[in-house]
Amino acid sequence: VEMGAKLLCLLLASVLVAYYIYSPIPEDIEEPWKVMLIEASFRTLGHLAEAADQLGLMHYMEALMLLTAVEHVPPTSDENVTVTDTEFNNVAVRLYLPRRSSDGLRRAVIYFHGGGWCVGSTGMKSYDRLTRLTSNMLNAVVVSVNYRLAPKYHFPVQFEDAYSVTKFVLQSSVLSQYGVDPDRICVAGDSAGGNLAAAVAQQLLEDSEVKTKLKVQALLYPALQTLDLNLPSFQDNDHKPILPKSLMIKFWSEYFTSDSSLREAMASNRHVPVESSHLFQFVNWSNLLPEELKKGHVYTTPTYGSSELAQKYPGFLDTRAAPLLASDTQLRRLPLTYVLTCEHDVLRDEGIMYAERLRAAGVPVTHDHAKDGFHGAMMFILSPAELAVGHRLVNRYIEWLNENL
């Protein structure tokens, strides 16, 4: 009897584990079992963070930050690159300086990490690996920015940190100190970092103090708009790996405030007041998405929310937080642009719409769409969670920079 009871317990435990780990992975995603395990570990972390938050032990985002802490590596130089943690304009940065000689001045990349403005850091293994690779393969100076995070700091602090580092680097005295060519500078970032890169590139155009122009911007599955959180990509990818819609809404709302009323309004897509209705033209996917990506969805006119939220938290209608809301006149002057989007990503459509709008404004754009990609895929370039798709997208990004920067 005891043996039978043990077997039954084991069977039930196995069924629970299998149920928990198994999540349907789209057919065109490579290495589905690996992706499933990665997704299960992220989901577990999310559930633990939720529990810690409910029990009042720690804020949801602070619990997610534990992953960042576990993944942290100190700045370690190697035979190719000298790596140091320092500060530019009182903002923490990790600096990568190539060791091999250069015929002339070097290129520079200013990089903003992802993590929903709430988590992540320049010292995470995957970011350290990506920025180190970039520096070594391009023989470029890389400045990876450790901007301050929510919930402790809300918009516009993250943007201001990103902007002040960029402005600091673009000073001619700093460029000459590090041997950087003023005509070969790029801002880049993934996810929330792609948002910051796009916002910084736009803001520089309005800043008469900055004489040095960016040569390129590289936006890797960027978050670009807060207006319509029910785009086809939000509907189709609600439960796809790494970034479910509910988590993206948590990140967006937390960027502006810890007040849950904004999150609730965003979750029902009723957060934009009627007086901001003119902004919807910039995110109207029925005009801006190619037919094949509408996937049978029918555009419906927005449902407006209270003016009170927008008055309290005007950030979500600000182009510094939502670069897709910039006018065509503003977009026209932007530099050469690289946009990466992934098919299985809630942020897919805003990246595509930005690429379309930039193109229409006359900006040269390379848009890479990874049919088998999902949000955050570029972070999985280290074992044990190494994915072929991650390597492919990283190589493509570095290759593009090599050809265009």
UniProtKB/TrEMBL annotation:
Alphabetical list of Gene3D superfamilies matching this protein: alpha/beta hydrolase (3.40.50.1820)
GO CC terms of this entry: membrane
InterPro entries referenced in this protein's UniProt entry, alphabetically: AB_hydrolase_3 (IPR013094), AB_hydrolase_fold (IPR029058), Arylacetamide_deacetylase (IPR017157), GDXG_lipolytic_enzyme (IPR050300), Lipase_GDXG_put_SER_AS (IPR033140)
Active site: 191, 345, 375
Example GO molecular function: carboxylic ester hydrolase activity
Signal peptide (from-to): 1-18
Residue intervals passing through the bilayer: none
Domain Alpha/beta hydrolase fold-3: 109-268, 316-378
Keywords, alphabetical: Disulfide bond, Hydrolase, Signal
Family: Belongs to the 'GDXG' lipolytic enzyme family.
Protein name (record): AAAD deacetylase
